[in-house]
Amino acid sequence: MEEYSQEDWGNHSQDLHCYQTGEQELDEMPTTKRTLKIKQESSEDTQKRDVMQNIMQILESVQLKWELFQSWTDFSRLHLSNKLAIFGIGYNTRWKEDIRYHYAEISSQVPLGKRLREYFNSEKPEGRVIMTRVQKMNWKNVYYKFLEITISEARCLELHMEIDWIPIAHSKPTGGNIVQYLLPGGIPKSPGLYAIGYEECHEKPPSPLAEHRGPDPGNETQGELEVPSPQASLRVDMESARIIYCYLGIAEVRTLQQCLFLHFQANTKTFSKDWVGINAFLSQNCVVEPGVSPKSIYIKFVEVERDFLSAGSLVECLEKAIGYPLKFNN
To answer: pTM (2 decimals)?
Structure first.
């Protein structure tokens, strides 16, 4: 890595000055507004950290090897030029050879090669951080790893990490002990991916990741991010940890609206004991005993162009992201 020029250091000083100015503005805020701002930033930081932990779990679960960054020719290979990917940046020190994560991301909009270059270009904020830590001997070497993904797999991961669950309402019991699902409006009449989940009724034992402590803010200057073991990924990495994924649907021939209607509306009228899979599960959930409520069911969906839906291994992609198998996708 090259030495900083005088201009680089000048720019770096200006950045620090700007940051200090922001702190002064925060000090001048009324206490109430300042508290709200700090809480908002803290919530956003927590959310970003949770997403990054999830991405690191995916990278670890597929057992990729770290590659040492040596020169720009590393990124000139064709397969890095215009592919989408999940990637991680790591480092080690002179005192500890173990490679630790500095950053992880799903490059779903920008090609992997271009995104990685930004992390090794001193003129970019991301690259400047890495160069500084190498020059100051905080780090010894810098590494990267990546897993190529298709557009549909990128959208599948977006469905998991960015799309909120939508609860499905039930009607009052009819015909004695039968309830019906009431689908919400606004389900797109277009192709895409959808997931069905249910709320876990019994209390689950604490997951390994729940006990895992996040990075210490005091050590952020070192850029270290702890990586949970693959076994620690066996849980749902969402705010509502009690919602369990049980089915991933691909609306390719039919629209999202048509697929979900077939799951939730038609089966309550044509229930058969011979049914298996997700339709049987949803239908049986509509038959309730007196005083017993049906399981709470949730859906989420994302639109995807039809031409992209046939590419990739979508079920395996989601299973790696959530850390457990989908019950009704066998």
So the answer is: 0.71
